[in-house]
Amino acid sequence: MVINFSKYNWILILILSSSELFSKETNLFLLLFILLYYVLVRGGRLSISIPGAKYYFTLLIVGLFIGIVNVIINENTVFNFVKHFIYYLLPLFFWQFGYILSNKENLSCKPKNIKESIVITAFLLSSYDLIGSIISFLSRTKEIVDLYSLRSEFGRGFYVPIIALYLVLFYSREIKLSKNFKRFLVLLFTISILIHFSRTHFIILLILVFFSGFEKNMKNIKKIIFAGTLILAGVGVLYLYFPNLVIDFYNKTSQSMTEITFSKSSWSHKDIIWNWRGYEMYSALNHFKSSSFFEQILGGGFGTVLYMGEYAYLVSDLPYLLFLHNGYFTTLLVFGVSGVILFVLWVLSLFGYSKYINNTQDSNFIKGLAVVILFTTYFVNGPLFSVSQATFLLYFALFSNNHGELDEDFKKN
């Protein structure tokens, strides 16, 4: 098996690995360096035709303007303003990078190599993850009795193996790797996903599979059954050795809707510990209700924080939170009600973008990713405030431009 990678494939591997391993600042400067090199040294041109650009840039302008005003009047700090601003730029920069790689007029980077690059990145990350988890398990100083102690030892896992597992299952013919190696990769990626017991990871995979069009192809159905069998077998093995973890995961999954509710009128210390996400949303809603009408509509801009008092120290070293687990509520605080509406319209634009893609499988993948963003932002930070989810815009670009130029209708919009 020989993989003929160009330097651009290795740059893609570097960017994807960096998105999972390094800070937002590192990712921003790395992407900025590459984009500036492309423009200043290679004489390239960047396109700002990110899907839903009018919604994305409206939010950017609102966040900047109101955030700067609040920094001037000492409502927001420069440090927090810059942190929000950096996160917000990442989806745009990931899109720009993906657009450069996938547009044949730019670098002539073959689509099949792009998919293989993602798979190889996942192979490296999953191997690193698995080896690190084994070392942590063997050298652990305390017993792993629940999901919290598990994630303290093993971390929360990566998103790239989820995408790669999807690619190996549904783009198998286009990925020029041996059958045995693909089977090994399916096993490796499945283990990498399983050992972290992440509900979000399972949700992402299920949504992507649902939109894959698998029911039209018997081979795809067989692959899904095979992968599902592996997952069930893995859960069975884990239950034999770590029954408490499996039971804890089951309980948390079955109580997911309760965990994200915030309708309680009073919260005891026990309630807050047990349902921290719900308490975050409850506190954010109280903050929203006590804000001025202007702030309710347009938010507090970049740098807005939520003061949580002594309970903030459960998840932060500071008395406030800059990001909430629920991305919609972070958006509400930063951009107001109008911001939440614009964000939803932006994601719907991402979904609608799929109709301009000639390849059916790529179009299905784009639809699935858009729904993943729309759904999981309620449970995690979302693409505007998370490096890992911002990389979804990289996948949008990579799988949107592989089959020629976009229709003129989209360009006009």
UniProtKB/TrEMBL annotation:
<feature type="transmembrane region" description="Helical">
    <location>
        <begin position="365"/>
        <end position="398"/>
    </location>
</feature>
<feature type="transmembrane region" description="Helical">
    <location>
        <begin position="26"/>
        <end position="43"/>
    </location>
</feature>
<feature type="transmembrane region" description="Helical">
    <location>
        <begin position="85"/>
        <end position="102"/>
    </location>
</feature>
<dbReference type="GO" id="GO:0016020">
    <property type="term" value="C:membrane"/>
</dbReference>
<feature type="domain" description="O-antigen ligase-related">
    <location>
        <begin position="185"/>
        <end position="344"/>
    </location>
</feature>
<keyword id="KW-0812">Transmembrane</keyword>
<feature type="transmembrane region" description="Helical">
    <location>
        <begin position="118"/>
        <end position="139"/>
    </location>
</feature>
<dbReference type="InterPro" id="IPR051533">
    <property type="entry name" value="WaaL-like"/>
</dbReference>
<keyword id="KW-0472">Membrane</keyword>
<feature type="transmembrane region" description="Helical">
    <location>
        <begin position="184"/>
        <end position="212"/>
    </location>
</feature>
<feature type="transmembrane region" description="Helical">
    <location>
        <begin position="328"/>
        <end position="353"/>
    </location>
</feature>
<feature type="transmembrane region" description="Helical">
    <location>
        <begin position="224"/>
        <end position="242"/>
    </location>
</feature>
<feature type="transmembrane region" description="Helical">
    <location>
        <begin position="297"/>
        <end position="316"/>
    </location>
</feature>
<feature type="transmembrane region" description="Helical">
    <location>
        <begin position="55"/>
        <end position="73"/>
    </location>
</feature>
<dbReference type="InterPro" id="IPR007016">
    <property type="entry name" value="O-antigen_ligase-rel_domated"/>
</dbReference>
<keyword id="KW-1133">Transmembrane helix</keyword>
<protein>
    <recommendedName>
        <fullName>O-antigen ligase-related domain-containing protein</fullName>
    </recommendedName>
</protein>
<dbReference type="Pfam" id="PF04932">
    <property type="entry name" value="Wzy_C"/>
</dbReference>
<feature type="transmembrane region" description="Helical">
    <location>
        <begin position="154"/>
        <end position="172"/>
    </location>
</feature>
